[in-house]
Amino acid sequence: MGDPREPPEGVPDGGSGNEDEYRSVVFDESFVRAARIQELSASERLGGYSRGVRPRLGFGHIGSLPRQAVALLLLVVMAFAAAVYFGVSSPRRMGVQPTGNQLTVSMAALSPSSAVPAVADPKSPFAALPPGYADGAAGLGIPAGSATAHFTRIEVTRALDTVQHFLVASALNPATLVQGETGAVRALVTPGEQAQYDQSLNSPGDDQHHAATGWLVRFDPGKVALAVDSVKVAGGMKVTEADSATLEIDTDHTLVYALRPAGTDTSAPVSLFSVRRELRFEFDHTDIGAGRARLVDAVLQAGPMACGAPLADHLQPLLAGQSAGTPPAVDPADHTVPAWQVCGVLGPLGAGH
Predict the structure, then answer these.
(1) Do residues 156 and 203 make contact, with C-beta atoms less than 8 angstroms apart?
(2) Band of the pLDDT at 342, cuts 50, 70, 90?
(3) Where are the transmembrane segments (predicted)?
(4) 264: which residues sit within 8 A by CB, 6+ positions away?
(5) Which pLDDT score, from 0 to 100, does residue 92 have?
(6) Cβ-Cβ contacts under 8 Å for 110 (sequence gap 6 or more)
């Protein structure tokens, strides 16, 4: 008898007569998932669909990926989109001032007890200064760079060089002192503080954060001229670490300027004006590499000046022959006057040395 599995008319030529010959056309699961059409379910066909199949969503190769892989890919895309969004719309890009490491400024006017004296020899205005002062950068007292716990000797040396450049640009350069130059100092300020610096120069305010004179020493060129370009300096610097990622450099200098009234010739009387300037700088490794400083604290004592003189924009020296008059009374109940506005009596220059 013939094989009951064979058709009555016999096996076609070349065929085996069993299901093995169809194994080459069996569709595996990945082939079915990749199909562009999908058969409707029984419930969908009963629901009135006019066609027995529907097209599958065309995601190309993504449609054949496992669900876990697709979910992971979506998470990566969402994370990237969020990073781009917050990078573009961050507070710094939107013009909001940075909240950390802002400069804080404190200033005190030093008032003379009598009329400001003129120097005896205008050609040698600093002759009466006590020992310890030097010309310009030579008086800054820059220490040799040495390694700290978390900063190398080279990094400390570079930070000290940046501070030196800042001090020279901000307090010793005649263009800064009486010609309105501000770009040289700005170039040494970190990008995070430049918005504060710009606002301080464009709209100075006595709010402890936006005084132009907290960043640099400058005089009103319509009122004051330098009798000589040199500045006498005494003081020094100290290097410490604020934390493992922050190098801190503190500077404390007394600067003496020889001044005369603006628009006068060399025959005009010359007087001395002194500024004690304590600054605190902070650096991270990036700041050091970029040659920029974060100035976070500035304290100034300057005189001779009148108590109550506005100090946010320019320092206001009293020149030879001028006097301050009686200091105004301070009313502790007057909240219209900032509590940090203080005034002291100017003592003999160099008496503390």
Answers:
(1) no
(2) confident
(3) 69-88
(4) 225
(5) 36
(6) 274, 301, 302, 303, 304, 305, 343, 344, 345, 346
In angstroms and rounded to an integer, the radius of gyration of the C-alpha atoms of the chain is 39
Neighbour-count burial for 212-224, b at 16+ CB within 10 Å, e otherwise: bbbbbbbbeeeeb
The per-residue pLDDT for range 160-200, each reduced to its tens digit, is 999 999 999 999 999 999 999 999 999 999 999 999 999 99
- Distance, in Å, from the CA atom of 16 to the CA atom of 234, rounded to the nearest integer, reads 108
Question: What global pTM score does this model have?
Answer: 0.71
Residue 313 clears pLDDT 60, i.e. is over it: yes
- At 265, list the tokens: 């010739």
302 and 315 Cβ atoms separated by less than 8 Å: yes
- Tokens 């970029």 found at: 290
